[in-house]
Fold this protein.
Amino acid sequence: MATEAPRWWGRFGISRAAGRREETPAPADPSNVAQMRRALDALHPGGPLEPLPRAPWLERLLPEWEVLRARPHIAAFHVHPVDVHAARTVAEARHIVEVDEFEAGTPEVARQFGRTNELLLAALLHDIGKGHGVDHPEAGAVMAERFAARAGLPAEEAVRLVAAVRHHLLLPGVATRRDIADTEVIRETAEAVGDASTLRLLYLLAVADARASGPNVWNQWKAQLMRSLYVRVLATFDATAADAAVPRVESVVEALVGRHPAEVVRAHLAGLASDYLLSTTPAAIGDQIDLIERAQGRTAATLEPLGAIDRLTIVTPDRPGLLQDVAGTLAGHNASVLGGVAYTRADGTAIEVWHIGDALGVGLDDRRRQRILDTLPRAVDGDYDIGERLAEVARSYPQPPRRTDIATSIHVDNAASRDYSVLEISTPDRRGLLYAVTRTLHEVGMDIHLAKVDTIGPEVVDAFYIRRQNGRRVEEPDEIERLERRIAEVLAALP
C-alpha cells in the first residue's frame, strides 16, 4: 500500500492515518465466524433485508456493531439506517456477482476477483466506523483490523479488508468529481489503491454501496464513469489491461462501420479531449455524430427514457453562458439534473449529456419531454426568457423548505489539476441551483472546461474545472475568497 495520500484526498473525507494500531484482540471461536458467514449468505436482493440479529456470535466477533443498530445516516441521500444499509450492501454485492443492469462488465470483475466471501465481509463492514467521529473510513479501518484479528483472517485478506473499508469512498469520489483523463489523477489513485486485487474489491464494493444507498444513486452515467476509471487504474497494475484502459480510436471506428465513414469518426474524436473517449460508449458516440449532422451548425437535442430517469443529449455551437441556459431551461420545466458532463469539440461544437429526473416526483411524460426539446433551441438562441419562466414556475410550484440537515460547502481546489482550478460545491438541492451557479461563473468571467454534476438524493455535489477567460487559474487567496463568497451569496439567496 502507498504511504502518502493523493494531494486531493481530503475532499473525499479520506485521510491517511494507517500507522495507528491497537492491541490485537484474541481470535474468536471459529464457530462464530462460520455463523457470520451463514448470516451473510442469507442476505440477497430477493429476501428480507433486516438488521443482523442480536446473537452471542455477533457480540463476540463484532461488538462494534451495536453502535450501528437503527443508527440514522448523516448523509441525507441514504434511505435506511446504517445497519440496514450494510445488509442491503451485502445483498447488492451478491447480486452484482451475477448481473449489473447498468454495467455488463461488473460480473467479470467479480469473477477476476474470485473471493465472494471477502467481498461480502467488506460490504458488511464498510460503514462500521460511523458513529465514531467525522472520519468514518479511518475509524472503520481500525475496527476492521481488529475484526480481522478476531476472525483469524489470513494476512493478505486482512490487509485487503482494511484497505476496502479505509478507501471505500475513493473511486466514486474520483469518478464523479475529477478529470479521469488526467494521468496524474490516475497515478495517484493507483498509488492509494496499491494493487489490482484491492482495486477490484474497491470497485465491486463501490457499486454495491451505491446500489444500496437509495433511488438513482447508481445509474448509467455513474456506471460508465466508474468503469472508465477502473480500467485506467487497472492498467497501472496489469500490463495486459493497458489496451482496455485507453479506448482506441480505431476500435470506435470499427464499431461504427456502416453508420459513419471512418474519417468522420476520426475527425470527431480528434477534436475532443481524451476524457470524452473514456466516458462515452461507441454507440453513444455514433448517436452524437448523428445529432451533430442533424443540427447542421444549430441546436439539436434528444431525450431518451432510462427507467426512472432520462438522458438528455444536446449539441450546439459553444458560447459563453451556454451551460446556464441549458440548466435554466431544465429548471423551468421542473426537470432536475442528476448528473452529467459537458464537452466542447475543437470546431466549437458543444456536446452536453445530462441525466435528468422529475423535480415534481411524478416522472417526465412525453408532453413535458417534447416541451423541453422544443424550448432548448429557443433558449440557446436567446428567444426564451429563462428568468421569467423560473419566476412563473416558482409561483405555480412552491418548493418545500430547504433541508437544514445538509451543510453547504464551497471550495476552490488548485491541487487537483495543473491547468484548471476545481470549484467544488456541496449543498441541498434546489430548483434552479445549477442555473444560478453557472450564471454566476459566467458573470465573473470564468470559462468552464469540464462540469461534473452529481445529485445524490436531496444533496448536490458538483465540480467545475474553471479558469479565467485569459487562461489563468483562480490562485490568489483574495480572488479565491471572493469567488467562494460570491457563490455562497448566490446559494443563500435560493429558496
Notes: Residues 35 and 57 are 7 Å apart (CA to CA). The longest strand covers residues 446-456. The longest helix spans residues 196-213.
